Structures are given as structure tokens and as C-alpha cells.
């Protein structure tokens, strides 16, 4: 703390503060003028600021309520604090826990609420928390840890929940309903007092489906939890409670307007995949920092291309919810095509440069409402709320001007939306009023928010008096020295001013006595010792007290007045809150589209043709991740046509060659080939291309015609974990069963190595039955890609021929004359029609270091299996050496039996020698049996 005195440096004391600026949002309308644009403030110092690090735990709260009946009916509602929005799901019949996984991945809740009477299957799933089911946090797609709370079943009652929704105070706006608080806290002047209960229900029914009884009950549980949090965190009548957990909008959403993808699909296709951050300082349990970063994934290809926090969030939502709206998909494709035109490259670079200077205004407005202008431990004056809003206004105006200068931009939907959502006059007013009020240069010097001169006359007068205090203190010190005895003048060093302590007299310290060298002797005054520091004592005497009463605490008075001015500024800015938030949200949407455009140009992707026909025609397709990690990638196509349904209208078709050629395409493609030949990559490649097409992005292919696909179901990755009471084979069966039960004719199903976790005969039978099931569905058959090594299902003709079934294999080059086993098999990674006669597992084993004798034996057994021979009989056959030894043993035995050996007469050692000689000749194949002497010849 630096004092003001004639001796010390005349600098205003640094006083870091978190000012209470505004507690209530004012009206949504304000005056609009057209002043000059604001001046930029320290833009470069704000570029790398991470908005999520600014003490944003409360803003990252996502409260979700789930309720599932025993019959599988599911209801869900969740509240996002950052958006101040309540989302309600249309009730889903016979949903299953897989849909719950999708909701958890989509919403990333921090708290999950369930009733005590809910389905046990749901409780078992939620009890696993945030741990990924495969037991590997590096590959998790589930959200960070959430708190699971089981509530009373009465908290989910439909009637009470409906009443809570009715009690929300609503204001009808031009675009949305603004829900601010609950009527038990504030009187509902716009709600039920203006009409009957029936009228209130009618108004509520205009934006909420009251027939979704389970979801309405979940909404009541969420509202109850919000009310509990307000009661626990705020005192009664605390004005901060008005803006805490506010609800500005209620929206219904459905799983039927987007492609269904569950956690298995996201993991198998690597759509999203997080891993621990390599910097352990970035790991932590707080909600704003989950300690993970995006790994090698499809979303990761675009994540770093988004410039704003709201843009990254919007981009993630786009990847999690592929659309089934063909108009929306084609609109995004046209937008991407527009921005990547060569003539727009400079404008695109300008847009991204301006977007990188923008932060999420929802966070800034929330801090402004709470009265905190410098949130977070790492926040400084250069990146506080005022600087963020001013910078937002400046760069938003520049973005608006850049878009206006792009030829043909008025035809692009997102550009029209940006133009309609941004009010230049309002943003100029916002930027100008901040620039006119805040002195950013002085704020950096003093490390606190400072107000410019000319804003408030009283404040200016107080600052002038404070700045002139050095001369005043010098004069006071001279007067004081004239009053005290001449011998004591050398001990009085001066007068100083400290905030909150006031005016003080500085006296030197007597090192022997530990007291001041002068304590007011000779004066009718009492010098009180306030404190000692650096060998001097600070005293309060009558003259200092008179100055305190006359001038007061000048510094604190300046601070108090600046807080009042900043409060008035915040109130004025909050009059334009809706305009600021609308501009921030639409810029986030623009940022997400630009990220898709930049990524499509960066990776050399093309726009697919979307159609309502149930076809899939890809030419020259590539895997977006695999091609980035290999020197060269071999492209492959795919041609499938699923069932058209019974009694449906003719789908839209432009009669293109791709559409005509796909009429004879199969609905099921069974893929065979050696290990490591690229079968799994091909399956994932096709699915990822379909996935990217449905988010409106370009795809890695030469050209493609893709029909709308409502679900992508996979049996690829087996996510094992010790917390799951299932074997690997049981998990595979569950995934296959889910595909059977939930597949429609517009679904794409991927099956890779199904049945490998059990007996080979049982596995082959299961694969055959599964393929047969999807092939014979007729007009309701889905698109199916399967890879298998069970060649016996083809050798035995277990799969009946069908025009909807086709076979293909990944081509390889075989050179058995090569001396090196590793050179005998060369992978070409090219898809060829027809099936492969072998998986070449033995060749793969040889290439991976398995002993040659083992490989040769394995090839012999595989050949016998293909011929259908009895392995037990063949494996019991003797080798040539064993046969020779058996023949020798047989000849010896016969020779022994043909020789008649009579009982010898006892003659001592002579008898023993005779036996030994006879047996020795037999065993070593000596003379014939006739040449062996008998017992009579030897005198036995």
C-alpha cells in the first residue's frame, strides 16, 4: 500500500476490486443512436484468453431429470445455465437405455435427477457415472462426472410440474418467450392473473407439449432443484436471486428430427473422442475444466478451426445431432460452397480474424448482472467484462460490414440471419458508451477499473483534490513543524495519507526505547501510535484528525463514486442485453459454419448430393482420419439401395446417373478378406461419410449421392469394463439385438466380426441368421455392411442367393515364390467384387513372427477344414517315422512269438547268457529266426 506524502511517490494506491455493478436486468428497449465506432482496446492481449477459465463453474451447470417406466417409456428435461434455457423432450415410447446414453452425451449434465420409482435399468446405467463403459478414460465420449440424485417420486408428479410451468412469469417477445422467475418468488403480473386456468393452459400448450406427461414431470423436478439451489445459496429478498438460474426460454426437442446415434456409434466411428490433457496443470474436477482435450476424432478435425467459445459449443452440437431436414442440410452445403470460393478467401480470413477477438457474451452478461467486472483469478483489467463487451461490439460491426461487402451474400441463410440479428446502431452505442466511460489506459496502470474525466463532475473534483494532495501534505507538514519544538523538528519526517487510515504523521523510531523520538511534548495534544513500519512510527494527532474530518477518506470516496458510475453504465448496457446476446449467438452459429467450410477446403472434400431416395452411392470415398496418418490412401466406393417401403410416394429424384445405376444395387454387402486388409476401415469410412453428409458438411470422396439415413447402428467396438456385468460376447449380442429391434429401412447398419466371442460353429450360425434376417425384410430392408472371417457360411451355402445380397473382398497380391514370408502377401486395400477364399491368417501369422512350422501345420489343418474332412481321424494318423518304428516293433514281436523257448535246465550263468543272446539277436534284427539256436541245440 503506497501512501500519499511530500516524500513518497505521488501514485494512486492500487486497489484490486470486484465491483457490485448491477443486480437486476432493466427493460429490454433503449434508445438507439449512431455515434462513431468505439476504439479498440488491447486486442492482442486478449487473443489467447480462454473464456472457460473465468470462474465459470456456475455457468456450466446442466441439470437433467430422467424418468423411465418399466415398459421403456422415457421422459427427459434439462436446464442449461449458460443459455438460461429449459429443454423438454417429446416422450419416447419403448426407448431403452441406449437412448439415455445418447441424451447424456448430447447434454453433458453436471447433475442428474431421477425418481425413486424409476426403472432399475435406468438406475444401473446412471450409477456408472462418468466412467466410460470401456474402462478407458482416454477414449471416453461420455460427459465429465455428474452428480446423481434420487428424489421422491412426488417431485415428478405431472400436476405439480404443470403448475410450476404455469407459475413461470412470461413476457411475450417478438421471437421467444422470456421466462425470468417463479411466481412463488415474484408476483406473476403477466401470467395467471390475466386469465383463467384454462387460458393459462392454452398459452402453455402453445410452446410445450402437455401430452408428454413424463417429460413434464421431469421439468417439474428440474424447476424444484433450481428453487432449492436459490434457497440454499441466497438469502431471502436477495436481489442476486433474480438473475441466478434464470429461465429465459422453454423449448421442446425431439429425437425424430435428427439422426439417432448412440454412444457405441460415436466410439466406433470416432466422431468424438477425448483424452487426458498432456498438461497435468489443466486437469481438475471443476465443471469448467474437465481435464481432457479432444483426441484424434472427426470432430477434432474441425474443433480447432472454430474461433469463439460459442462457436465451438455450437459445432459440437452440430456433430452430436446430424439433421434429417434435407433443406437444412442443403442450405449448409450452399453456405460452405459460398465461403470457400476463391474470390471470398480474403473475406473469409477477415471474418475468422475478427471472430477470434470475440468472447461469449452470455458469460460476460451473466458476470455483469452479478456485479463482477473482473471475474476469475487470471482476469485482468485488460480482459475484464467492459473490455470484452467493447471488443465484441467493435468486431461484430466489422463482421457485419465484411458480410455486407461479399457479393451474393444476401442469398445465404446464415448471412441473412446474421444481418437480421445484428443492430449496428445499438452496438455502436454500446461500444461508444464504454469507450466514453472507461479509461482503459489508466485502468491498466492502477490495476482497477477507472472512469474517464468528464463523466461525473463530483468524481472529477474528488480526483483533482486527490491528485493535488502532495502539495497539500507538504503545506500541512510545514505547519506542523512550526508548531512543535525546534529540537523535535528533526524527528518529524512528514505527513502521509493512507486509504481507510486517513492522515498520519511520520516520526522516527528510538531504537533503544522502541518508542517515537517525539510524542507531542510541549503541545497540548495526544499523539497516538497507529503502527510501526520500516523504522518509523505513524501517529494520529489532533491536526491529523481535523484533516480526516474535513477531507474524509478521499480515495475510498473516489472508489465509491466510480462504483456508482459503473453501476449506471451496467444498467444502461443491460437495456441492450437481448441485442448483445442475439448477436453473440448468431456469431457462434456463423463461426461453426465457417469451421466446416475451412475444414472442407483444408481437407479437399466435396459436397454430396442429398436425396430422399433410400440409396447410398459413393465414388472414391476416403476415411477422413486414416488418410491423415498414412503416406497414401486407396479410395473405395460403395453402392447400396435399401427398401422403398410399402405404399409410399415416389421419392424425389433428379434422374442422375448415380440414381439410375443404384437401382440394381444390393441392400446388404458382405465383406471378406485377410486380416489387416482394410475391411474395418472401409466399414467406418462409409458410415463417417454418411454422418458428415447429414450435418451438412462436405465429405472425403470424389462424388456421392446419399439418401436420408435416420439411424447408424454399429456392432464394431466392444466396450468392456469391470463395472459392466457382461462378457464381451454378451455385449456383442446386445448391440446386435439393438440393431435388430431399432433398425428401419432408412438405417445404416455396420457389423464387424460378429460372433467371434463364442464357438466358431455357433458364431457362424449367428452371423448367418443375422444377415438372413436383414436380407429378407423385403421393402423394409435397411442398408447393411458386414465383415466376417466365417468362410464356412459360404462354402456350405448357408446364405441363400438374393438380389439384395452381394459379396466383396479387399484385394491382396500373393507371391508364394517369395523367399521371405513377409513378402508373400501384399495388401492392395482395394475393394473387389466377389468373396475371398481365405482370410490368409497363416500368412498374417508368418508376417508377424510366428514360427514357420506352426504356420505350415495351420495351413494343412485349414485345408482339411475346407475339404470337410474328419480332423480327429486325420490328426490321429501316424507320421512316416512313427510307421517305420511300428513296423520294426511288429517284426520283433513276431520273431519273438515264432521262436519256441522251452524252460531251460538250471545250469547257472550259462542259462542266463543264452537268454540274453537270443533276445539280443531278435531286438537288433540279427539272423533270421531259423538261425537262432534252440534250447535243444544248446543242450537245454
UniProtKB/TrEMBL annotation:
- GO MF annotation terms: ATP binding; ATP-dependent DNA damage sensor activity; mismatched DNA binding
Cellular localization per UniProt: Chromosome; Nucleus
Nucleotide-binding recorded as keyword: yes
Gene Ontology BP terms: chiasma assembly; mismatch repair
The organism's superkingdom is given as Eukaryota
Q: Which UniProt keywords apply?
A: ATP-binding, Chromosome, DNA-binding, Meiosis, Nucleotide-binding, Nucleus
Q: Where along the chain is composition biased (Polar residues)?
A: 653-665
SUPFAM superfamilies reported for this sequence:
DNA repair protein MutS, domain III (SSF48334), P-loop containing nucleoside triphosphate hydrolases (SSF52540)
Write out the ranges of the annotated region (Disordered).
1-52, 644-670
Q: According to the UniProt entry, which residue ranges have a biased composition of type Low complexity? A: 19-34
**Pfam annotation, one family:** MutS_V
Give residue spans, biased composition: Acidic residues. Answer: 41-52
Please state every residue range assigned to the domain named DNA mismatch repair proteins mutS family. 747-763
Annotated coiled-coil segments of the chain? none
Main localization of the protein? nucleus
A GO cellular component annotation here is: nucleus
Protein family (similarity comment): Belongs to the DNA mismatch repair MutS family.
- The protein's name is DNA mismatch repair protein MSH5
Amino acid at each position: 500500500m503506497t501512501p500519499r506524502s511530500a516524500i513518497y511517490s505521488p501514485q494512486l494506491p492500487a486497489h484490486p476490486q470486484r465491483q457490485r455493478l448491477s443486480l437486476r436486468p432493466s427493460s429490454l428497449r433503449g434508445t438507439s443512436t449512431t455515434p462513431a465506432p468505439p476504439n479498440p482496446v488491447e486486442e492482442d492481449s486478449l487473443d489467447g484468453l480462454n473464456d472457460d477459465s473465468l470462474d465459470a463453474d456456475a455457468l456450466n451447470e446442466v441439470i437433467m431429470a430422467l424418468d423411465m417406466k418399466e415398459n421403456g417409456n422415457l421422459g427427459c428435461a434439462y436446464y442449461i445455465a449458460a443459455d438460461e434455457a429449459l429443454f423438454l423432450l417429446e416422450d419416447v415410447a419403448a426407448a431403452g437405455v441406449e437412448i439415455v446414453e445418447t441424451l447424456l452425451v448430447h447434454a453433458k449434465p453436471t447433475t442428474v435427477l431421477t425418481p425413486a420409482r424409476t426403472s432399475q435399468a435406468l438406475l444401473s446405467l446412471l450409477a456408472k457415472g462418468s466412467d466410460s463403459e470401456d474402462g478407458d478414460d482416454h477414449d471416453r465420449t461420455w460427459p465429465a462426472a455428474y452428480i446423481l440424485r434420487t428424489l421422491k417420486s412426488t417431485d415428478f408428479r405431472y400436476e405439480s410440474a404443470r403448475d410450476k410451468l404455469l407459475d413461470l412469469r412470461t413476457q411475450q417477445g417478438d421471437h421467444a418467450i422470456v421466462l425470468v422467475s417463479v411466481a412463488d418468488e415474484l408476483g406473476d403480473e403477466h401470467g395467471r392473473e390475466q386469465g383463467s386456468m384454462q387460458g393459462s393452459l392454452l398459452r402453455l400448450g402453445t410452446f410445450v407439449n402437455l401430452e408428454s406427461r413424463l417429460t413434464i414431470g421431469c421439468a417439474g423436478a428440474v424447476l424444484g432443484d433450481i428453487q432449492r439451489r436459490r434457497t440454499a445459496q441466497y438469502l431471502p429478498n436477495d436481489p442476486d436471486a433474480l438473475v441466478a438460474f434464470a429461465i429465459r426460454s422453454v423449448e421442446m426437442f425431439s429425437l425424430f428430427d435428427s439422426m439417432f446415434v448412440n454412444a457405441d456409434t460415436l466410439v466406433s466411428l470416432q466422431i468424438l473422442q477425448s483424452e487426458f490433457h498432456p498438461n497435468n496443470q489443466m486437469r481438475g474436477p471443476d465443471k469448467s475444466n474437465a481435464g481432457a482435450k479432444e483426441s484424434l476424432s472427426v470432430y477434432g478435425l474441425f474443433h480447432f478451426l472454430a474461433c469463439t467459445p460459442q462457436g465451438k459449443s455450437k459445432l459440437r452440437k452440430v456433430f452430436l445431432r446430424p439433421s434429417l431436414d434435407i433443406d437444412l442440410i442443403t442450405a449448409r452445403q450452399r453456405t460452405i460452397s459460398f465461403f470457400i470460393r476463391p474470390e471470398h478467401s480474403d473475406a473469409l480470413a477477415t471474418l475468422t480474424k475478427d471472430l477470434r477477438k470475440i468472447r461469449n457474451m452470455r458469460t460476460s452478461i451473466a458476470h455483469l448482472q452479478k456485479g463482477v467486472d473482473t471475474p476469475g483469478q487470471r482476469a485482468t483489467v485488460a480482459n475484464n467484462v467492459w473490455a470484452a463487451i467493447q471488443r465484441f461490439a467493435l468486431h461484430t460491426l466489422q463482421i457485419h460490414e465484411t458480410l455486407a461487402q461479399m457479393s451474393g451474400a444476401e442469398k445465404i441463410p446464415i448471412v441473412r440471419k446474421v444481418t437480421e440479428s445484428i443492430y449496428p446502431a445499438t452496438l455502436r452505442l454500446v461500444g461508444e458508451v464504454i469507450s466514453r466511460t472507461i479509461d482503459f489506459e489508466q485502468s491498466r496502470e492502477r490495476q482497477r477499473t477507472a472512469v474517464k474525466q468528464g463523466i461525473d463532475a463530483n468524481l472529477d473534483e474528488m480526483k483533482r483534490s486527490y491528485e493535488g494532495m502532495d502539495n497539500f501534505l507538504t503545506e500541512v507538514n510545514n505547519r506542523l513543524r512550526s508548531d512543535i519544538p525546534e529540537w523535535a523538528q528533526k524527528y518529524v519526517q512528514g505527513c502521509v495519507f493512507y486509504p481507510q487510515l486517513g492522515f498520519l504523521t511520520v516520526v522516527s523510531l528510538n531504537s533503544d526505547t522502541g518508542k517515537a523520538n517525539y510524542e507531542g511534548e510541549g503541545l497540548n495534544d495526544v499523539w497516538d501510535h497507529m503502527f510501526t513500519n520500516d523504522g518509523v512510527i505513524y501517529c494520529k494527532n489532533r491536526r491529523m484528525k481535523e484533516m480526516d474530518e474535513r477531507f474524509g477518506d478521499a480515495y475510498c470516496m473516489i472508489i465509491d463514486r466510480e462504483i456508482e458510475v459503473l453501476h449506471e453504465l451496467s444498467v444502461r448496457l443491460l437495456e441492450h442485453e437481448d441485442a448483445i446476446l442475439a448477436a453473440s449467438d448468431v456469431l457462434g452459429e456463423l463461426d461453426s459454419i465457417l469451421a466446416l467450410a475451412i475444414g472442407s477446403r483444408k481437407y479437399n472434400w466435396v459436397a454430396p448430393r442429398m436425396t430422399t431416395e433410400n440409396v447410398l452411392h459413393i465414388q472414391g470415398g476416403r476415411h477422413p482420419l486414416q488418410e491423415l496418418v498414412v503416406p497414401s490412401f486407396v479410395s473405395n466406393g460403395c453402392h447400396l439401395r435399401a427398401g422403398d417401403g410399402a405404399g409410399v410416394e415416389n421419392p424425389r429424384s433428379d434422374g442422375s446417373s448415380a440414381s439410375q445405376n443404384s437401382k440394381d444395387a444390393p441392400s446388404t454387402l458382405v465383406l471378406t478378406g485377410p486380416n489387416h486388409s482394410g475391411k474395418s476401415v472401409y466399414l467406418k469410412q462409409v458410415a463417417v461419410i454418411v454422418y458428415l453428409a447429414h450435418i451438412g458438411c462436405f465429405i472425403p470422396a470424389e462424388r456421392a449421392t446419399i439418401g436420408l439415413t435416420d439411424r447408424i447402428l454399429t456392432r464394431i467396438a466392444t466396450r468392456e469394463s469391470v463395472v459392466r456385468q457382461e462378457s464381451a460376447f454378451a455385449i456383442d449380442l446386445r448391440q446386435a439385438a439393438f440393431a435388430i429391434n431399432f433398425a428401419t429401412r432408412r438405417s445404416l447398419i455396420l457389423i464387424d466380426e460378429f460372433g467371434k466371442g463364442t464357438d466358431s460353429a455357433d458364431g457362424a450360425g449367428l452371423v448367418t441368421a443375422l444377415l438372413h434376417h436383414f436380407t429378407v425384410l423385403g421393402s423394409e430392408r435397411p442398408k447393411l455392411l458386414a465383415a466376417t472371417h466365417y468362410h464356412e457360411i459360404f462354402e456350405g451355402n448357408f446364405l441363400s442367393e438374393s438380389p439384395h445380397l452381394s459379396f466383396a473382398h479387399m484385394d491382396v497380391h500373393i507371391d508364394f515364390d517369395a523367399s521371405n514370408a513377409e513378402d508373400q502377401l501384399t495388401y492392395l486395400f482395394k475393394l473387389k467384387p466377389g468373396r475371398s477364399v481365405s482370410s490368409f491368417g497363416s500368412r498374417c501369422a508368418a508376417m508377424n513372427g510366428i514360427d514357420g512350422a506352426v504356420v505350415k501345420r495351420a495351413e494343412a489343418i485349414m485345408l482339411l477344414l475346407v475339404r470337410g474332412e474328419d480332423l480327429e481321424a486325420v490328426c490321429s494318423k501316424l507320421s512316416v517315422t512313427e510307421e517305420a518304428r511300428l513296423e520294426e516293433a511288429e517284426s520283433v514281436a513276431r520273431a519273438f512269438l515264432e521262436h519256441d523257448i522251452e524252460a531251460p535246465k538250471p545250469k547257472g550263468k550259462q542259462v542266463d547268457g543264452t537268454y540274453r543272446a537270443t533276445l539280443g539277436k531278435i531286438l537288433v534284427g540279427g539272423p533270421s529266426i531259423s538261425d537262432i539256436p534252440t534250447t535243444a541245440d544248446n543242450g537245454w
